[in-house]
Specification:
The chain is α+β, with helices and mostly antiparallel strands. The chain is built from 8 helices and 4 strands. The chain binds 2'-deoxyadenosine-5'-diphosphate and magnesium ion.
């Protein structure tokens, strides 16, 4: 099967609230492969490029202020079906509508403070990993558990 990549980011509220380990854990336990990880203070230009499709939205300036308001944790994850599966683990954009058991459903209460980002398509996964990581910041490796995750 096709192996995809997704860009997952703990937003500044997740970092400030001490949820970094909890959020990383959800993806780690599921069985996806971590290929990139860093704590990073995002410049305004990068936040605007990342969210460029939302530029016309009334909440765009607030979104950019929020994402640049403190450090974020940038992650690249790899696996078969990882993009759609990560979106399910994350839950709906509005945390009050997100199912219990999802990250937003369990850990957040408002759309404007929804603790985590996940790419919405394999194409955007690639695009966003390219935006947030430099060459040499990603690792290709074989997890020891690989044969115990997929037959
Ligand atoms: P998602 O993050 O679930 O992919 P999105 O791509 O539609 O959602 O929007 C990106 C982020 O923008 C979202 O996580 C929070 C913010 N946002 C979206 N809709 C919003 C709204 N109506 N009010 C405030 N912030 C919003
Ligand atoms: Mg989105």
């Amino acid at each position: 099967e096709q192996v995809d990549e997704t860009y997952i980011m703990v937003k500044p509220d997740g970092v400030q609230r001490g949820l970094v380990g909890e959020i990383i854990s959800r993806f780690e336990k599921k069985g996806f492969k971590l290929t990139g990880l860093k704590l990073f203070q995002c410049p305004k230009e990068l936040a605007e490029e990342h969210y460029k499709d939302l530029k016309a939205k009334p909440f765009f300036p607030g979104l950019i202020d929020y994402i640049t308001s403190g450090p974020v944790v940038c992650m690249a994850w790899e696996g078969v079906g990882v993009v759609a599966s990560a979106r399910k683990l994350i839950g709906s954009t509005d945390p009050l509508k997100a199912e219990p058991g999802t990250i937003r459903g369990d850990l957040a209460v408002q759309t404007g403070r929804n603790v985590v980002h996940g790419s919405d398509s394999p194409e955007n996964g690639k695009r966003e990993i390219g935006l947030w990581f430099k060459e040499g910041e990603l690792c290709q490796w074989t997890p020891a558990q690989a044969p115990w995750l997929r037959e």
